[in-house]
Amino acid sequence: MTASAPLRGPAAAVAYLLAAARANGMRMNRTKLTKLLYLADLRAVERGLPPGSGLEWRWRHYGPHSLRLKEVERDLREAGHVQVEESVDPYNGYCEYAIHLMDAPQTVIDAEFTEIINAVLADFGEWSAGQLRDLTYQTPPMQEAVRGGRREVRLDLAGGPPFPDLGPGLTRLRRWAADNPVPDDEPGGVEDLVEESDHLSGHRADATRWLLEE
Length: 214
What we know:
Elements: H1 9-23, H2 30-46, E1 58-60, E2 63-65, H3 68-78, E3 82-88, E4 95-101, H4 111-124, H5 129-137, H6 140-148, H7 167-179, H8 189-213
Antiparallel strand pairs: 1-2, 3-4
Helix pairs in contact: 1-3, 1-4, 2-4, 2-5
């Protein structure tokens, strides 16, 4: 049997956090996983390191979130690494998605970031999903986003204003370029350049001789 390739990027960060939580007897659901990864990325940036999860964070319905996490969960589930258990609270109708790590996949992840994940789990791993959501709203990137009052903005983990979203502008530019293709050559353009070059050839030769004589 061929061994599966080690996990990298966001998948490795998710798998490592789940493994560390399991080793410490911590129950994990989607909301807790999301907020803990965000806090780990935030702590990494505070230490002058790049965010280790490889995720892009935006302000969504319940604080910082990344749509990429849904794809990562699907890939890990299809590979047999995780199992997602859905349960509904009979009193308030709240649906929880608990995530269980089923094996111990190999991961390629920065050692400093694993230490940060371990520290974040030690500090907040026992907190509830609601407590973590409230905590993330108090972080500088989320406060800047809320101050602007615009959801879906991309968060600057360094605490500055949210990054401008270039997506819509790029979409409009691509649409315009598709409707206005650039011609291969302007009619007569190449011939004009050749004629101009021939006309200046004598002057270039005189200048070259002058330089050589100097």
